[in-house]
Amino acid sequence: MCMSLAFLAPAGEGGGTDGSSSGQSGSSPGGPGSTEGAGGGPRYLVTGYEDGVAALWDVRNTGRPLGSARLHSEPVMCCDARPVAAKRPKGDAAASAAAGAAEGPAADPQAAAAPPASSPAPTWYDLITGSADDVVSCCSLRPAEAQPVRMAKQIKLREAGTADVRIRADGKLFACGCWDGRVRLYSLRKREPLAVLKYHRSQVTAVAFSPVTRTLATASRDTAVALWSVYIAGASHSTDA
């Protein structure tokens, strides 16, 4: 039985891990390498099941999943995914500048002033899953590869049970709402703990980041909804993961 699911944002929706726009794919919707379905919506869907398995699907062909992996020993209760923007090699900009200088005065000034091409569409995704067990799983989704669901790291929790996970819009961190009443923040890139938010007196049932500010909202079985201003720059790691 499916317990959780999330669409993977198509190209141009959501940014990479640096918070920038992912750019356009340069291919037609639904075409090779495109992250869009035939109707222009999301092409990929990830589903989590009661046996701890997560599967990646192409919504254009639902006969069988592209791939799957067992991420938990208990049901997958929640999941969230975000595109990872492909990055050009660091030497590209310098090489282009050197080539322009070598051409000398004959170089086309309009070409030299042309803006850089947009970043390629994301083909990889970060996936975070929570479960009734005592780990949070950090995975890499690579739809075009033979093994599209890959475990990157499992984060051990003090207490079992994660009700909800959300990745912040800038792709820098993610939040886990846990059954012990705590909200745990982690670095998405390093997959390491950043902070533990303690307010709720009962199980945290939902977490949500504002898409335009650093505000985090959390809800709990204690009937309270809490608002947090989350800004973490160079924070030391929490000792309570």
TrEMBL record:
Q: Which UniProt keywords apply?
A: Repeat, WD repeat
* Xref: SUPFAM superfamilies: WD40 repeat-like
Tree of life domain: Eukaryota
UniProt cross-references to InterPro entries, sorted A to Z: WD40/YVTN_repeat-like_dom_sf, WD40_repeat_dom_sf, WD40_rpt
Annotated Low complexity bias: 92-119
For bias kind Gly residues, which ranges apply?
Answer: 28-42
Q: Which is a Pfam family this sequence falls into? A: WD40
Q: Where are the WD repeats?
A: 197-230
Task: Region Disordered: list its residue ranges.
Answer: 12-44, 90-119
The record's section on Gene3D superfamilies has:
YVTN repeat-like/Quinoprotein amine dehydrogenase
Return the protein name: Guanine nucleotide-binding protein subunit beta-like protein
Annotated source species: Chlamydomonas incerta
